[in-house]
Amino acid sequence: MKKSLLKKYADAIVRVGANVQKGQHVKINASVEIADFVKLVTEAAYKAGAKKVYVDWSFDELTKLHYRYQPVSVMSKVPKWQEEKLAEEVEVIPCRIVLLSDDPDGLKGVNLEKMQKVQQAVTAVTKKYRDALDCKQQWTIAAVPSKAWAKKVFPSLRTSVAVESLWDAILKTVYVSEDADVFAEWNNHNKSFAEKCAILNSYKFDRVEYKSKNGTDFTVWLIPDGKWEGGGEYTLSGQYFNPNMPTEEIFTSPMKGRAEGVVVATKPLCYRGQLIENFKINFKDGKAVSWSAEKGEDLLTKMLTFDEGASMLGELALIPHDSPINNLGILFYETLFDENASCHIAMGSGFTNLIENYEKYTIDELHEKGINDSMIHVDFMIGSDDMNIKGYTKGGECIEIFRDGNWAI
Amino acid sequence: MKKSLLKKYADAIVRVGANVQKGQHVKINASVEIADFVKLVTEAAYKAGAKKVYVDWSFDELTKLHYRYQPVSVMSKVPKWQEEKLAEEVEVIPCRIVLLSDDPDGLKGVNLEKMQKVQQAVTAVTKKYRDALDCKQQWTIAAVPSKAWAKKVFPSLRTSVAVESLWDAILKTVYVSEDADVFAEWNNHNKSFAEKCAILNSYKFDRVEYKSKNGTDFTVWLIPDGKWEGGGEYTLSGQYFNPNMPTEEIFTSPMKGRAEGVVVATKPLCYRGQLIENFKINFKDGKAVSWSAEKGEDLLTKMLTFDEGASMLGELALIPHDSPINNLGILFYETLFDENASCHIAMGSGFTNLIENYEKYTIDELHEKGINDSMIHVDFMIGSDDMNIKGYTKGGECIEIFRDGNWAI
Lengths: 409, 409
Known about the structure:
20 strands; 35% helix
């Protein structure tokens, strides 16, 4: 890919995504495999005025070895210095830039039970620090092709061509091109989202109903003072940022414990570096009570039983079937893209900042209002070209939200 | 390079170099550019029984950006979590594996004054942790070609050929080949070193005199209960390890404050990622009092004035001019190799474990005996094909140690 376009993208991640301000610290999460792009993001962050930029490097190949050779007891122990580091981040509140590049099947072969135990133990220690940054931190997730991921998306192409093709696709989804004004594009995009949210919020839906010929037949209740949101967000201190690049979703967090029916996944789900394919989940009293998958059913079970909240819903997201990402016709095997190509829902924790005037409540009060709590938040896709979604108001009025996979309002 | 040879080399680094024992932690320092080889070392360490392996990744390209954009005050501050990490290492005593791969000129352009200030401030905080690990930790330094380094060594070759050629050269110097028994080779090597050391130590030299037609004319006094050593070493707890791969040197730490005359460098020196070339240093009362360099004189000044001990000697090392490494005829631009191709001396801290029965003394007592202390230890090469070295005993006896660049004993 041309250096000038890569620089433009790195700059968009820093200025549109995390919206780094003068004097802020910036933390980048990235694989060692994309070090050259990390360099561009680092330089863009400094040019935007960052005081300090640092990288938490990862490497799937080592992660696999750690899981193979370390006992659960060793992997589960969070060293004191790592806690200290998280505590310092709660003080400094760095912008966080997550660069996704991993092979969606890159952790294939890792013992699932072991991974689950380790993640539970580690998250039990680290969650309080993440919670403390909630709504305070500017963050963004963006993607960079690795060779393995590109080959997964374009298996018939030569590696170098596959990487270029994946770059092409990614840059299209985030409005980065030679002559595009990326800032203006994102402003327009966010404006149209705000308008749609205003309409949805005006109805104050009691519940939403999903139906598709593929078998999805599902009703989920909403939180009375919950909101629909999409596009950019504000931190508590009023800093605007775009958490996902790309983003095509308008979403809310539903009332935990109130959902009934069956949802059928329409795309594969990559969870913990491994794939779950062709699966469906049956809900009763808001909880996943039974499920099946053609591939990765064991992994799906691990996911849905990770903790109590993992069996309940944290998010409903609306994306038209003819979204720009879906229209690329590419299965990315990466939630960041596939979730923005299709209506999806998420198991696990909801978003506390979707409650009206959330800043006036404690986190416990927000959970009592119906926002689900869990150590996981996993999106999966349920959109299809015949998906019909209806909203019902408290007064019994029925509003068509989606007709045949696309917006009806 | 063939995968089987790379695995053999990774295994040698783990089992011959650091000599990792069952249940030990292993810390690897490496550039993100050699992640694939780090994977091999990590797996070898686990197979040797390591309990936990972790990597401190570096990337020169980011280091340059940090120096360019961060103020000295920000770079000089060691975060509490980093101190905590060092403190935990003092408790756990991980084996340390340092993999060198950087372009010897990779930090060219970085502001020297700034780098000096930052290093001084950081070392002032971190030195006590390093001192606490002294003589307790198994460690080894080995090298892995990066593209930039390979091109520096073989500028006329295509990059891929240059990398292969540098691999060939490196593997030769550490006795790794298809059919070699690497362990036996290193055992023999270490045995011949032990014999030579025994002879040198039997003379109990008062002083050593260096002379070469290139202008070196230099006398340095030794510590009465100092020792010559070479090859493998033992930790205080009795674990054998090989700190340098390769190693061809037999060395001692001289009496600080007692050296007179001129030494002329015979190879370029890479210091802090930048090169110093064609330089000489004039000593009086054991201290560098004047110096000059055709290239990098400013850097040389920074080095010699880093702290008080930086102007004094920490090491004298004897390597015959027809050493296996020198006979390769390659200038590696990397001290690990070039120091093992030629007699060298080091500015800065000496080795406290070279005092007879060092474990019976405090670190202050060892410094009082004459071991130099400094935050730096920088080797540079003074060997030549006409270097004559003589040792003088207290009784006035003169022993030829080197004649025309090679061992005379």
